[in-house]
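Problem 12. The chain below contains 224 residues. Write out its predicted structure in token notation.
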Amino acid sequence: MIPQMEYLYPALKALALVPATLLPIINPLSTAPVFASTTGGDRLVSKRLARQVALNSWFVMVAAMLIGTYVLDFFGISLPIVRIGGGLLVASTGWRMLHTSESDEVQAAASEQTGRLSDAEIMKRSFFPITFPLTTGPGTIAASITLGAKLPDGPALYVVGAAVAAVGAALTSLVLYFTFKHAAALLEKLGEVGTLVMMRLLAFILLCVGVEFIWTGWADLNQL
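Solution.
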């Protein structure tokens, strides 16, 4: 029983790390107003679009975690540098979220444009701009690559780690699906104050995650 727990605990920790790292960066509550204006409050359209955005986001996150490091190797970038660079980007995103209340220009532009789209055009925009860059933007991709850099090197352990990462990304996508599906109702219940408090909490968690990535990368560099 004890040996099983020795393997189970790291797997559960790695599983929880994926949504804990990516959700504050994605911050679906910040994209919820754009999503709600896109669907116009139509429940059927909201469900279809939320499912497609969640699926698109899963593919982006998993691809970044599994092949992102190989792409970086092609350009001669070491993993510790990836961790530090990704950590700086993640931490700066969290810091910026803590000290700003203005909407991103991309979100504002998307909100203005999507309100006039037909149902067919709405589905075409499931990837751009809702999936990218509003949901899984550069910060999410950088953090996903950093998470992928932590996968074990051994073939068997790598497969297990990749499966855990894929499940973690699925949990993240599931949260995105339910958040976007009920975006209009969720924003109404939270109100402006509740939404602001939630965003600040997520921003602080994001800042801490970024610092942890930087520390890990620095420690790895010192061991080289």
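Discussion. The two ends are 36 Å apart (CA to CA). Students who got a different answer should revisit the alignment rule from Section 12.3.
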